[in-house]
Amino acid sequence: MEDLKTYAEITWCPGCGNFGIFTAIRNAIPLLEEKGIKRENVVMTAGIGCHAKIFDYLNLSGIYSLHGREIATASGFKIANPNLKVLAFSGDGSGLGEGLAHTLFAAKRNMDITMILHNNGVYALTTGQFSPLTQEGWKGPSTPNGSFEIPFNSMSLMIETGATFVARGFAGDIKHLTDLILQGVEHKGFAFIEILQPAVPYHNWEEYRENIEYLENEPENYMDAIKISKEKHKFTLGVFYRTHRPIYHKELYGDHNPIANRLSRETRLNKIRKILGSK
Amino acid sequence: MDSDLFTFIVGGKAGEGVKKAGSVAAHIFSSMGRHVFQMDDYMSLIRGGHNFSAISTTPRWISSHYMKANLVVNLDKRSCETHTNDIAENGIMVYNSGEQEFETGIGIPLTTEAENYPMKKLMFGVGAVAILAATIGFEGEKMNQIIKEEYPTGIEDNIAFADTIYNMVYPYCGKKFTLENGDKKRPIITGNEAISLGAIAGGLNVYYGYPMTPASSILHFLAQQAENFGLAVVHAESEIAVINMAIGSAFTGARAMVGTSGGGFALMTEGFSLAGITETPLLVILSQRPGPATGVPTYTEQADLAFALTAGHGDFLRIVASPRTVREAYFLTAEMLDLVWKFQTPAILLTEKHLSESSMTVEIDLEKAKWAEPKMHENGEYKRYLDTEDGISPMLFPPSKNIMKWNSYEHDEFGITTENAEMISFMHDKRNKKLDALIKYLKKQNTVNIIRGENPTNIFSYGSTYMSVLEALKYGRMNPTSIAPIYLSPLPIWELEEFKDQDNIVIEQSSTGQFTKLLKEKAGLGIRSTIKQYNGRPFDPVELSKKIKEVL
To answer: Whole-number mean pLDDT of chain B?
Structure first.
C-alpha cells in the first residue's frame, strides 16, 4: 500500500472534487516524510459526509468520527500525545454546521492540528440540502423556495476566531493544494485549509474554473487579512493569514507528554499517600 | 445509639465561611482519632441564601451525618429559623446576637466582634469553630494551631478573634460535651477526591470536563493535581467536546476519563454510542442531582439509573457500577478504569451528590487499587477489530508502522466501513461476545455487598443510600440482611438468585422506584415495599430508621 490507498472501494461520484483532494494528500505525505515527519506519526480523523469517505481510502491510522465531532477527536489526539501530527478532514456541513463550536474553539485555543475543510457548498451525501457555506437562494430539498440565510465567510470567520494559518485551495489545482497542505501541517498552531471541491451532481467544474483567482500577495497583518478576506470573493485562493502565538498543549503542560512521560504506578501511589497525609 | 455520637451543625449565608467551618470542625474531630461524616447543604448561588454543614462523629465507623445536633451554631437569623427542629434533646444552640436576638439559645455577638477586624463577616466561620472548640473543651492552644493551618490568610486576626469568641462562650457552655478520643487520626476526603485519586491510581492520563455540579470538583481537583501527576486536564467547550476529545485521547493509548451530571451526560450520549462501536475504553463519572433538566443543581437524587443503563443508541456493552462509600469510590474508579481497558467498552461510574460532595474519614490500602492495562497486539498483521474467542481485539497505539482504524460506521476487522449483510451481523456478534467474557470475569469479583442479619427481611440499596441504610440500622438497632449491588450493568443476578422469593424491601432516592424496577425485571426479585425519598436531601438515619421499622 505504498500509494497510501487501502483496499476500500471508492464510492465518490465519478468526477468528484474529492479525488483531487485525495491525490493532493497522497502527494503531501511523502513530501512531509522528506522533511522528517514520519508517516507513523501522522494520524487522521474525519467527520461524516462525502468528505469523510477519505478515511476509508487513505491508509493512515485514526478515528472515523461522528458528524461534526472530528475537530474534538483531533484535539483529543493532540492533547494526549503532542508528538503526533494530526489531520482533521472536515466538510462545510460537518465542520461549520454540526461541529461549528469545536472548530471555533480549536482556533481560539490555537490547537496544533490541521483542519482540511472539503467545501462542496452543499450537503451532498444527504441529497443536496444547503450548507453553512451555500449562497442564498439555493433550492434544495429542505429549502424548496430557496435558502434565505447568508453563508459564513469562512476566511474572516477563522481569522477572527484565532486560527493562525488560514488558507483556501482548489481541488482542481493539485500542485497549489499540495503546497498548502504541506504548509498547514508544518505550521505550529491551528491551520485551517478550505478546499473548493465541486460535487458534480450539484455543481460543474466550469463554474469554478471561470471564477478562480489567486491572491497576489499574502496579507501582512491581521487587519489586512480581515480586509482582504471580506473584499475577495469565495473563489479566491491562497494563504489569507499566517501568524504565530502560543499553542494549546504547550500552554497546558509545556514540554510534557502525558503518554510518553506517564508516571509509574509506584510513583503515583507514593504521591497519593502524601496527599492523604495532608488531608 | 452510642452515647458518644456527637453532631455539629453550622449554618449561615454563602460567603460567611460555613462550609469551611464545617471542614475545620471535621478536622478537629479527626485530630482526636474519631471517625467523621460531613454533609454540606448549599444553594445554587454565590452570596447570601442559606448554607449549612452537618458533621457527625463517633469513635467507631460512621456512614452518615445526623440532623439532630448536639451543637447548632447559627450565623444569621435565617439559620436560626431553619434549624429550630435540628437541636438534639440535650443539645444547645448558639446564635449570632450581633444580628438579632432570639428567645432561646446562647447569643454571641459575632457581627459586633468581627467589626474590629478588616475581614469582618469572612471571620464568622472562625467564630463557629471557636464556639465548637469551647463547647467540647478542646484546648485553646490546639484550636489556634488548627486555625493557623486551615486559615492561612490573616492568621493573627483570626486567632485573636477565635480567642475572644472562645472566652466569651466558655462561661455558658464550656466543656458541655466530653468527646472520647478515638484510636487514630485518619484522612478526611470527599467522594469526588476519592474518585480522582482512584483514577490516578488506576493509570489516568487525561481528564476532560465541563463544569456541572456535583461533578465539577473532580475537574477542579485534577486540574490542581495535573502537574504533580503528569496529567492533561482540560475544561472543554461542551460535554459533546469532552467525550469526543476523550475518545480521541484513548485512541493514542491514554487512559481517559470524563465527569458530569445528568444534563451533561445527556449531551454525551452520542459520543457514548461512538465509544460503543469503536470499542473505545472510556470511563464516565455520572454524579446525579435531582432532574429532570436543570432540576435542583446542588442536591442529591438517584433518578438517572435507568438513563445510565440504556444510554446511547444501538446495541453495545455498557458497564454501570456505583460506589457505596467514599473509600469504595477510590477502588471502584480504578477497577472500572481497568475494566474499560480490559473489555474495550464505555462504562459509567454512577454516583450522587451525596457521595461526591460529602466528606468522610477513610482508611485506604492504596496498593489494592487495580491498574488499567489493555491486551496488546504482539506481532504480525494488525487488524483493529480482529475477531477472537472472547470478542476482545488486541490493541495498538501510534506511532506504529501498522494501521489502526477505529470506525464509527459498521466496519470490517481492519476497520474499513461496511454495508455487507454478513459483516454487519458478524461484528454485532463479535462485540456481543464481550458481555459473556465480562460476566465470566465479574463472577470472580466482589460485585454485591451482602451483610447477613437475623431479621428475615432483606433490605436492598445501592450507591450512597447504602451508607444511610447502614447508619439507620445501627441507630435503630435493627438486624435485617443488607444487600447492595455494586455493579448495576451487568446486574450480578448470579449473586441475587437466593433472595428471589424472600421478603425484600428496597430503599432508594427515585420517585418512580427505578432501582426497584431493575431488581424486579433483571433479577426477578419479589419486592414487598420501597422506601423512597426524592426531596433532594439525603436520608437522615433517625427518620429512615423509623420508616424501616414500619415495614419490617
So the answer is: 97
Into how many domains does chain A fold? 1
**SS3 for A154-204, per residue?**
HHHHHHHHCCCEEEEEECCCHHHHHHHHHHHHHCCCCEEEEEECCCCCCCC
**pLDDT-derived band at A1, boundaries 50, 70, 90:** very low
Rounded to whole angstroms, how far apart are CA atoms A137 and A275? Answer: 63
* B19-63 pLDDT, tens digit each: 999 999 999 999 999 999 999 999 999 889 999 999 999 999 999
Task: State the residue range of the domain holding A41.
Answer: 2-246
In the sheet where B455-460 sits, what is the strand order? Answer: B448-451, B480-485, B455-460, B503-508, B529-532
* Residues near B419 by beta carbon (within 8 Å), at least 6 away in sequence: B410
The three grid cell numbers given for residue B37, joined into one nine-digit string: 461524616
Residues B513/B442, Cβ–Cβ less than 8 Å: no
* Beta carbon pairs, A and B, within 8 Å: 186
Is residue A70 domain-resident?
yes
CA distance linking residue B525 with residue B503, whole number of Å? 9
In a domain, A269, yes or no: no
B152-166, pLDDT tens digit by residue? 999 999 999 999 999
Nearest to A279 among B189, B241, B278 (CB): B189
Is A17 inside a domain boundary?
A: yes
Q: How large is the C-alpha radius of gyration of chain A?
A: 20
Q: Which run of H or E residues covers position A121?
A: none
Contact call for A73 and B203, based on CB within 8 A: no
Is the distance from CB of A106 to CB of A86 less than 8 angstroms? Answer: no
* A265 domain-assigned: no
Longest Cα–Cα distance of chain B, Å, equals: 85
Q: Band of the pLDDT at A232, cuts 50, 70, 90?
A: very high
Chain A hits for B405, Cβ within 8 Å: 55, 61-62, 64
Kindly give the residue spans of alpha helices, DSSP state H, lying in B287-419: 305-310, 326-343, 353-356
Angstrom distances, CA of residue B214 to CA of B20, B59, B61, B136, B219: 18, 29, 25, 33, 10
**How many C-beta atoms surround the C-beta of residue B550 within 10 A?**
9
ipTM field: 0.98
The enclosing domain of A72 has a CATH number of 3.40.50.970
Contact A268 B188 (CB under 8 A): no
